[in-house]
Automatic annotation (TrEMBL), chain A:
<comment type="subunit">
    <text>F-type ATPases have 2 components, CF(1) - the catalytic core - and CF(0) - the membrane proton channel. CF(1) has five subunits: alpha(3), beta(3), gamma(1), delta(1), epsilon(1). CF(0) has three main subunits: a, b and c.</text>
</comment>
<keyword id="KW-0406">Ion transport</keyword>
<dbReference type="GO" id="GO:0005524">
    <property type="term" value="F:ATP binding"/>
</dbReference>
<dbReference type="GO" id="GO:0005886">
    <property type="term" value="C:plasma membrane"/>
</dbReference>
<dbReference type="GO" id="GO:0016787">
    <property type="term" value="F:hydrolase activity"/>
</dbReference>
<dbReference type="GO" id="GO:0045259">
    <property type="term" value="C:proton-transporting ATP synthase complex"/>
</dbReference>
<comment type="function">
    <text>Produces ATP from ADP in the presence of a proton gradient across the membrane. The gamma chain is believed to be important in regulating ATPase activity and the flow of protons through the CF(0) complex.</text>
</comment>
<dbReference type="InterPro" id="IPR000131">
    <property type="entry name" value="ATP_synth_F1_gsu"/>
</dbReference>
<keyword id="KW-0375">Hydrogen ion transport</keyword>
From TrEMBL, chain B:
<comment type="subunit">
    <text>F-type ATPases have 2 components, CF(1) - the catalytic core - and CF(0) - the membrane proton channel. CF(1) has five subunits: alpha(3), beta(3), gamma(1), delta(1), epsilon(1). CF(0) has three main subunits: a, b and c.</text>
</comment>
<dbReference type="GO" id="GO:0046933">
    <property type="term" value="F:proton-transporting ATP synthase activity, rotational mechanism"/>
</dbReference>
<comment type="similarity">
    <text>Belongs to the ATPase epsilon chain family.</text>
</comment>
<dbReference type="InterPro" id="IPR036794">
    <property type="entry name" value="ATP_F1_dsu/esu_C_sf"/>
</dbReference>
<keyword id="KW-0375">Hydrogen ion transport</keyword>
<dbReference type="InterPro" id="IPR020546">
    <property type="entry name" value="ATP_synth_F1_dsu/esu_N"/>
</dbReference>
<comment type="function">
    <text>Produces ATP from ADP in the presence of a proton gradient across the membrane.</text>
</comment>
<dbReference type="InterPro" id="IPR001469">
    <property type="entry name" value="ATP_synth_F1_dsu/esu"/>
</dbReference>
<dbReference type="InterPro" id="IPR020547">
    <property type="entry name" value="ATP_synth_F1_esu_C"/>
</dbReference>
Length: 288, 134
């Protein structure tokens, strides 16, 4: 064997192994993506309904006052950031984290002016490394998280606003467009402003028991938590979409690499054969 | 007998969607029996069971918190979780009940933990209750 041939062969082999792994990961992500999308769709009726009822209460009763609806002077800001636990998902985590980091840099001068709620290990590591104040975190969520999994963090985030720990709350997650495109999105969660602004016309007017305020008291925190939950589900779908795309292109790259390596391997082999023949011919000529 | 559509929806999925004759729910202001053509109403619910009458049979569902939205021809129960008797994990509810009772006896009355343990106990009892009546 000519020099280098063995090395090239080894590289082909190892690239092939890598390709097998990335291909498997791609397919797993594709299957999980479908399930995540289904979960996101299944969650929609609940969110829609709550929004509808809250909207109709807000539209039906004039001058509702509730701490969650009231804008205050902003002294401190809360951020809830949804990332994934695992990497190898292309720019999924990097994009959202960069967006958060840049925004916080622009808006705040010192670490006293904001607090973070982080979902996902990647985000947690990122902000820990930068010594940013993390109030609460959730890691190790399953691939199809249930409402109970994130209830505590969602609850805390909403309660913190009610208690006046911060005066606005932003939600950061990757909006799912399709498997190829995920957009890092910022959403102002609290104070809830879009509810009353909607002014949903033509909805049924309800009786409230015991009273409209009382019902609103129960509903508004639930509404906010529901928004967080749907963002979480959408984030999951985005994660698998990003992962699928990243692994798909990794597989494609591996294929290309194998092709070019095979070509140079064959060239080397051919060169070795040619050389051997010419040596034999030269030897035979010298004898004859 | 006239019927109306009952839907029970949780953040994860739609648990129940059928035409029924009557339901009995426990709102925070008291128990309510709802028949078709009820006046439109919204009320939060306690952690309790919901009784559903359909044809000649009766069914119960464990509903954890949430609220009910009533319209003339349709009733929607939105809850954080809701289980039909067959879906309840009795062992888990049993364990949750014990855990909650332990915490209740350990915690002081004024703490948030106490509230949480109390709610957990209510949920567990409700689930056990419903699965017993099956």
């Amino acid at each position: 064997m000519a020099k280098g041939m063995r090395e090239v062969k080894g590289r082909i082999k190892s690239t092939q192994n890598t390709m097998q792994i990335t291909k498997a990961m791609e397919m797993v992500a594709a299957a999980k993506l479908r399930r995540a999308q289904e979960a996101a769709t299944a969650a929609r009726p609940y969110a829609d309904k709550i929004k509808e009822v809250v909207g109709s209460i807000a539209a039906g009763t004039k001058g509702v006052k509730h701490p969650l609806l009231q804008a205050r002077e902003i002294k401190k800001t809360g951020y809830l950031i949804i990332t994934s636990d695992r990497g190898l998902a292309g720019g999924y985590n990097a994009n959202i984290l960069r967006k958060v980091f840049v925004t916080i840099r622009e808006r705040h001068k010192s670490a006293d002016e904001y607090e973070l709620f982080v979902i996902g290990r990647k985000g947690l590591d990122y902000f820990r490394r930068r010594n940013m104040p993390i109030r609460q975190e959730v890691t190790g969520l399953s691939d199809s998280p249930s409402f109970a999994d994130i209830k505590s963090i969602a609850n805390q985030a909403v309660k913190g606003f009610e208690e006046g720990l911060y005066d606005e709350l932003y939600l950061y997650y990757n909006e799912f467009v399709n498997a190829l495109t995920q957009i890092p999105t910022e959403k102002k969660l609290l104070p809830l402003s879009d509810v009353t602004a909607g002014g949903t016309a033509g909805v049924t007017s309800y009786e409230y028991e015991p009273s409209a305020e009382e019902v609103l008291n129960v509903l508004l925190p639930k509404y906010a938590e529901t928004i967080i939950y749907s963002a979480m589900l959408e984030g999951k779908a985005s994660e698998f979409g990003a992962k699928m795309t990243a692994m798909g292109s990794a597989t494609k790259n591996a294929q290309k690499m194998i092709q070019s390596l095979t070509l140079s391997y064959n060239r080397a082999r051919q060169a070795a054969i040619t050389q051997e023949i010419s040596e034999i011919v030269a030897g035979a000529n010298a004898q004859g | 007998m006239s019927t109306f559509l009952l839907e029970i929806v949780t953040p994860e999925r739609k648990v129940y969607a059928q035409d029924v004759n009557m339901i009995v729910v426990r709102g925070i202001a008291g128990e309510l029996g709802i028949l078709p053509n009820h006046i439109p109403m919204v009320t939060p619910l306690k952690i309790s069971s919901v009784k559903i009458k359909q044809g000649g049979s009766e069914q119960i569902v464990a509903v954890n918190g949430g609220f009910v939205e009533i319209r003339k021809e349709k009733v929607v129960i939105l809850a954080e979780s809701a289980e039909l008797p067959g879906d309840i994990d009795v062992d888990r509810a049993q364990a949750a009940k014990q855990r909650a009772e332990q915490r209740l006896s350990a915690a002081k009355k004024d703490e948030i933990d106490f509230r949480r343990a109390e709610l957990a106990l209510q949920r567990a009892m409700n689930r056990l209750d419903v699965s017993d009546k099956r």
